[in-house]
Amino acid sequence: MSSVRVLVGTRKGAFILTADGKRDEWTIDGPFFGGWEIYHIKGSPADPNRIYASQTSGWFGQVIQRSDDGGKTWEPVSNRFEYDGVPGTHQWYDGTQHPWGFTRVWHLEPSLTDPDTVYAGVEDAALFRSTDGGQSWHELSGLRSDSSGHLWQPGAGGMCLHTILLDPERPGRIFVAISAAGAFRSDDGGETWRPINRGLRSEYIPDPEAEVGHCVHRIALHPSHPQVLFMQKHWDVMRSDDAGESWYEVSGNLPSDFGFPIAVHAHEPETVYVVPIKSDQEHFPPEGKLRVYRSRTGGHQWEPLTNGLPQRDCYVNVLREAMAVDALDPCGIYFGTTGGQVYMSADAGDTWQPIVRDLPAVLSVEVQTLP
Amino acid sequence: MIRVVLPPHLRIMARVNGEVVLEVEGAVTLRSVLDALEVAYPVLRGTIRDQATQRRRPFLRFFACQQDLSHQPPDDPLPDAVATGTEPLVILAAIAGG
Known about the structure:
The complex is a heterodimer. By secondary structure, chain A is mainly beta. Chain A has one helix at residues 142-146; strands spanning 3-10, 13-20, 27-32, 37-43, 51-57, 61-67, 75-77, 89-91, 97-99, 104-110, 118-123, 126-130, 138-139, 160-166, 174-179, 182-186, 194-195, 216-222, 225-233, 237-240, 248-249, 262-264, 272-274, 292-295, 303-305, 323-325, 333-336, 342-345, 353-356, 362-370. Chain A contains one helix and 30 strands. In chain A, strands 3-2-1-30 form a four-stranded antiparallel β-sheet, with no helix packed on it. Chain A is globular, with a radius of gyration of 19 Å. Chain A starts with a strand and ends with a strand. Chain B has one domain (2-93): Beta-grasp domain (Ubiquitin-like (UB roll)), CATH 3.10.20.30. Chain B is 22% helix and 19% strand. In chain B, strands 2-1-5-3-4 form a five-stranded mixed β-sheet, covered by helices on one side. Chain A binds chain B through residues 35-36, 57-63, 76, 79-80, 82, and chain B through 7, 9-10, 13, 43, 45-48, 50-52, 57, 59-60, 93, 95, 98.
């Protein structure tokens, strides 16, 4: 029988939640790396026992951990992230230029085909790649030099490269997203890049339709239709049907189109999930009701999913890395909250239950579907 | 023999209990002690000082013999009591909590 392994990064360590394919009884392992912030933890699609974790701390900096046995044991690998050449400067909050400096790894994206190849999205925003299982890291610096890096500026959470999507149909195509710069695409394995932000409109920047400067919170795609992208922007839920060449808004009837995560159903490329948040000033659900919204029409029409979720006095947030789906049928949907709950639905969102209620604030959730 | 006290998180990383004992060739300075520490425990590279700039991480402090040595130049000699192993060099995670 299939099983699922949910990899949870929190403010104070990592947790691994496992269940068989019925997904009704869960085992909680952890904390791993107790006391450290685990920004992201993700397994290799090519070898599910290979898992990478970003372990970080304001005191001790960055550590990258690697497991080769499905998360039972871990070994630190290289934490040396050096920008290529002279890093230069980017925009600072006050409009001055600020030196580029490494702070942490936000996102680790293992290759679809090679367990030893993994991409790292970092703050200050840049993309690194390792081809030796994390023993060494090299910046794909074309992203910063080709894409007007000096115009990027930090969002409230820092200037982070938080989304990396690898196109399963075109091996050289990579999408990334940066707060607050926007979305970018490479078609040659990360060597050269260009912004893909046409159609985005952001009232909080001087030119609302600028080529870069947009605070993109998350992008998602379905592996069978990788030219279709869904985006949760700072405000607005957006869609592209042409691999990011142009975007249009699909917020429709959402109670708020502000939010952080966005995810696509594992078997239905037009079924999309978001978690509306009241506003950029009030990072909690509207009306104190924790609602996932599902569109079965690729956007525009959204329905609230509330069964099993708190519908009063709920003021948690769901961060951009904290939502994922499994590949079982029916598709399982998972998300973690800043209140430490990890909720799951084994029926594509119709009903929800907490797997665990009292973890530290959840930073990231990833799911592995195991044979 | 040089004695070094690591903060608890780094003891876990290095898989050591209690103090770390190091042999340092030549002058005993912050740089030479940290160099020896990182050779003995490569996992600590980057956790105490930045790997590129060699600068101390801002929230860590170096104490010894009731003195804060955090701001002294890295090639200045450490107190004799540290160099002889009478007193440990304490690496402290300042601003505790969080």
